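hey so u asked for the seq, here:
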Amino acid sequence: MPPRIRSRRRGRRSELNEAARLADRLQQAGYTKRDVARIIDRDPSLVSQFYTQNKGAAFVTALREVLTAVEAGGITDLPELTAIAARHTHRRTTASGTRARVRGKALLITPTGSGTGRVGAQAIASGSARLRPLIAEAARQSLRLAFTVRLAKTSYLHPSGSRTDSPGIRRDVIQRTDHTEERSYGSAQTGGFDAADFARRVDATGGDVTAAVHQWLVETGRIDSDAHVLHLEIRTWRPR
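ran it, structure tokens below
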């Protein structure tokens, strides 16, 4: 008799709720989870929760209409699909009929401008979306920004501790037993980066923070173009 955990894994796909199944069909039609989020005008993390937290019931009708438009109507344009979904998605209202407040994520930026956000492998694979509000708020407040990345040692083009790689950073390198390294870029001592400029980079990648960081590291000759970011941390502060 096979272990019970293997049985659960085998039946996981059949246990998906209707919103997740419809999102899957849209992905089979060539759209990404991020595209689905744009179509229903919600954060990409909500689409992921269709699969992990059984959410999405309120979007089933909208997703069905969008899928029909794609499969039967041949409509592929995202703005047009978004307009179709908008006719079937409505924000929650309170008992008095007013629009309910949407709970926002804490940005963790203090009055002094100090803020930190970290993501691991799972969030990085989906673009590190949870870091985007932190970067956007840092840009709004005209803050400075620095980041730390972890990659395989062989992905870096400069040797550990090289001043060419990250000049002036005294934290230098954290080497790990799994043959990866963490390296920091920018600091309060060296001035760091303009958060507004970094926010524009993120916007240019469609909100994908992972891609924006990766692109900067490749453009500045620090990593191989096929390197994979394994860990990412963003830090902010107010310039003096």
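Residues 5-12, 102-107 have pLDDT under 50 and may be disordered. The longest strand covers residues 144-152.
lmk if thats what u needed
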